[in-house]
Design brief:
CATH superfamily of the largest domain: P-loop containing nucleotide triphosphate hydrolases
Distance between the termini: 47 Å
Strand order of the largest sheet: 2-1-3-4-7-8
Shape: elongated
C-alpha cells in the first residue's frame, strides 16, 4: 500500500477541514518519517489513517468515541478521507466517526452514526463499517494491530515491533510479504528429503 493523500475534517484538534496532506511529494524517497514538536499533529495523522482504514486509532490508549473535534462548529462534518494505491489500483476510504452535535433546527442533540465507504478507482466498492473493515483486511492482508506495528509506529509504541516475540514478528513479515507459498514449498521439499532419506 502506498499513501497518496489524506483529508482531515473536524477530527482530533482540528476544528475545520485541514489542507490535504499530499504523500506523493515524498514518493521518490521510498520511506518517510513524520516528525515534529510535541503537539504538532503527528499522532493525529496516524490516528486519521488508522481510523480511515480500520475504524480504530493508532494508539492503544485512545478510543474512537472522542475523535470529533471539540472545537468544530455544528455545521462542519467530521471525517477522514484517505487515498492510497495498492497492487495497481487506486482506493480511498471516507469514514466519519460517531458523534453528537447540536441539532441544526430546534433544540437538543443529534447523533451522527459512524459510516464508511471504500472506493476503488473512484467508484464505491463497499459500504458499511463491518464490510469496509473486512474488505481492507482482505485487500492489505493485515489487520489493524499488524498495520500499527509495521506501517504506523506511533510515538510511544515503537518498541512493540522491536519487542515482538520472534514468532509474532515472523508471522507479521510473512503476511506482509505474502510468503506463505514459499513456506508450503519448504514443507514439501522437507517431506521429499525425509522420504529419500528413509527410502
Amino acid at each position: 500500500m502506498k499513501p497518496i493523500k489524506l483529508i482531515i475534517s473536524a477530527f482530533g484538534p482540528y476544528a475545520a477541514t485541514m489542507p490535504e496532506i499530499n504523500f506523493e511529494q515524498f514518493e521518490d524517497k521510498g520511506l518517510f518519517l513524520i516528525s515534529g514538536d510535541t503537539g504538532a499533529g503527528k499522532t493525529t495523522i496516524f490516528d486519521a489513517i488508522s481510523f480511515a482504514l480500520y475504524g480504530t486509532t493508532s494508539g492503544s490508549y485512545r478510543d474512537t468515541q472522542n475523535l470529533r473535534s471539540e472545537y468544530a462548529r455544528d455545521d462542519v462534518e467530521s471525517y477522514v478521507d484517505f487515498y492510497f494505491s495498492h497492487q495497481g489500483s487506486n482506493y480511498h476510504i471516507k469514514r466519519n466517526p460517531s458523534y453528537q452535535r447540536k441539532k441544526l433546527r430546534g433544540e437538543g442533540y443529534a447523533t451522527v452514526k459512524e459510516q464508511a465507504v471504500l472506493y476503488k478507482d473512484g467508484e464505491p466498492l463497499v459500504e458499511g463499517l463491518t464490510r469496509v473493515n473486512g474488505a481492507v483486511r482482505d485487500l492489505l492482508k493485515i489487520d489493524d494491530k499488524q498495520f500499527k506495528q509495521i506501517a504506523m509506529i506511533a510515538q510511544g509504541e515503537f518498541w512493540a515491533l522491536l519487542n515482538a516475540k520472534t514468532d509474532q514478528r515472523t508471522e507479521i513479515l510473512r503476511t506482509i510479504f505474502m510468503t506463505d507459498g514459499y513456506k508450503n514449498i519448504e514443507f514439501k521439499l522437507k517431506d521429499r528429503l525425509d522420504s529419500v532419506r528413509a527410502g
